[in-house]
Amino acid sequence: MTPSDIILPRSIIALSARSKGALLQALARTAAERLALPQAAILDALIRREALGSTGVGGGVAMPHAPVPGLEKPFGLLARLERPVAYEAIDGRPVDLVCLVLTPENGGKGRIDALACIARRLRSPEACDRIRGAASSEDIYAMLLEGS
């Protein structure tokens, strides 16, 4: 599995949110529109996952993820935030890059593969800086394809 299996060119978005809760709502709304699934189900899954511990992985990056009823294959969104948001990240820093990964409810190994392929790419500070500075979603997508 590669990042481009989960993140499509139209899945790279800009978002504005004032808080972690508002960010999760915006992500759930966008995913629900793209997937034709109930926003409430997606938001509930994300909130339940965050209750286990923050998905803020450090370096200004968050990777909210959850299994979602009715989803048939992994789905992702990569959002650049207009302003960083406090997210209770592991390093205490606010986040400005958010990669949402939703997986089928019984995703098993596929869920781990989906998260791992994105995490490998976003663990590099250089890659994150390139995403932050990219001129367009097409440039970001091309970067995700590198090394795939």
Summary of the model, kept short:
45% of the residues lie in helices and 23% in strands. The chain is α/β, with parallel strands linked by helices.
Q: How would you describe this protein?
A:
The chain has 148 residues and is of the alpha/beta class. The protein contains 6 helices and 6 strands. Strands 1, 2, 3, 4, 5 and 6 form a 6-stranded mixed beta sheet that branches. A hairpin with a 2-residue loop joins strand 2 and strand 3 (61-62). The protein starts with a helix and ends with a helix. The model has no long low-confidence stretch (mean pLDDT 89).
Let me know the average pLDDT.
89
Strand content: 15-25%
Q: Approximately how much helix is present in the residues? A: 40-55%
Overall form: globular
Given helix and strand content, the structural type is alpha/beta
End-to-end Cα distance: 9 Å
Rg, Cα atoms, Å? 14 Å
Stretches where pLDDT falls below 50 for ≥5 residues? none
Strand count, sense and barrel status of the largest sheet are:
6 strands, mixed
